[in-house]
Amino acid sequence: MTKDVNSLQNLINNNRKWAEDISDKDPDFFPTLAKQQAPEYLWIGCSDSRVPANEIVGLLPGELFVHRNVANLVVHTDMNLLSVLQYAVEVLKVRHVIVCGHYACGGVKAAMQDQKLGLIDNWLLEIRDLYHHKQDQFKGIENEQEKVDLLCELSVVRQVYNLSHTSIVQDAWAKGQPLSVHGWIYGLKDGKVNDLDVTVNESTQLSELFRLKS
């Protein structure tokens, strides 16, 4: 128990030093931040502890609105994600929504296997379905890690379009609100973010099947 208490106290001590360092550089930082938040970006990322959103893109508190879940999925029945998205788009007026996956994602790897893990199996059905749907793209790839990493990329692309299909995003476009949805992926081995060159800026980029009538 003592060890656990000490570990928690270390976190509090780290916080104090972090806050003091920022205040030393800019005494007005926290008082100003407390009055408002006006981020330009919504980050939808994985819950993985190795992928800290603000740090890897060099942004301070208040500059990035964040939602994280296992395997950075955009599920259309996820009221948590949709609430975050609506607030970010309609209230904060973010200009960019970034879906950022990462290579060697445990959730993606689990979706490729036939093992029963429990409740999370239901959450990962989206990726499992994608894996079977895209089987042609995995032909000739023998290395298992390469397969996982390819599926990580394909999943990010799928989530970009899942986001773009929501009424929240399409309503913003219909109102002329500037909003772009991007797909990125992060490398755990080198700490670098790569743009997957998938960006949706307007509903005309979507299949007509998914365009909502305004």
Tell me about this structure.
The chain has a 5-stranded mixed beta sheet. By secondary structure, it is of the alpha/beta class. Strand 1, helix 3 and strand 2 (64-69) form a beta-alpha-beta unit. It has helices at 2-25, 29-35, 53-56, 79-91, 106-112, 120-123, 125-133, 144-164, 167-174, and strands spanning 41-46, 64-69, 96-102, 180-186, 193-200.
What labels describe this entry?
alpha/beta; 9 helices; 16% strand
Strand tally? 5
Structural class estimated from helices and strands: alpha/beta
For the largest beta-sheet, the strand count, sense and barrel status come to: 5 strands, mixed
**Number of DSSP helices?**
9
**Helix content, binned percent:** 40-55%
Identify low-pLDDT runs.
none
Percent of residues in beta strands?
A: 15-25%
Would you tell me the overall average pLDDT?
94
- State the order of secondary-structure elements, H for helix, E for strand: HHEHEHEHHHHHEE
* Largest sheet strand order: 2-1-3-4-5
**Terminus-to-terminus distance:** 58 Å
From the alpha carbons, calculate the radius of gyration and give it in angstroms.
19 Å
Compact description:
This protein is of the alpha/beta class and 214 residues long. It has helices at residues 2-25, 29-35, 53-56, 79-91, 106-112, 120-123, 125-133, 144-164, 167-174; strands spanning 41-46, 64-69, 96-102, 180-186, 193-200.
